[in-house]
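pipeline stage [seq->struct] | target=Phosphodiesterase | organism=Virgisporangium aliadipatigenens | residues=214
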Amino acid sequence: MLDRLLFSAAAAVARLRHARVMHPRGRSFSGELAVRRPEVPFGAGLLDRPARYRATVRLSKGTPTPRGWPDVLGLAVRVHTRRGPRDLLLSSSGARPLLRHLFLPRRRVNGFYGSLAGYRTRRHGRLFLGAALDTGRREAILMAATRFGRWRPFARLRVGRGLSRRFDTRLAFDPIGNTAPDLRPVGVIQRLRGPVYRGSQRGRKHRLPLTLLR
């Protein structure tokens, strides 16, 4: 029942806006993700196996606030693997254990981004993902940590050229569907993301009838 309500509400808002419900303003870039072997395995192939992947990166604002105002910023990464896309969605947050679950509005794109909610792997019941973004170097260090553990890096993300506005408009991330069996989203936030993102994508594909716009 809740899933249906969230889906319908998100679809309606997206139709009215002709834009995403969440993080409507942003820009997309090409990228490359270089995964290195971690000190201790995390229990997920994407985090543990050294490899290079083509990536799509999107930097965005959570809400359409005026320019210069603090906002919840987003860093979305689509990793193009042989088994399909893997979408990792991070938001501006704190890096310390007690702040990993909280949104942290800010003005500057540089800084720390976290998954807020966790992922279940073969070794951990709840593993958090994070990234330290440096726009000057056009790169981000991706890392993971347990609930109270220290952050351990596992990959370097290179941010490449900017992609067209048309591409950005059509780009749709699915943090629930585009995951691996050994890196599954868990928790309430992750649970609610699914219907909201699916509804937003559906709404962007269909416009409201004229009678509903009067």
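stage status: PASS
auto-comment: Confidence is low (pLDDT under 50) at residues 9-14, 207-214. The helical segments are 2-17, 45-48, 165-170, 188-205, 210-213.
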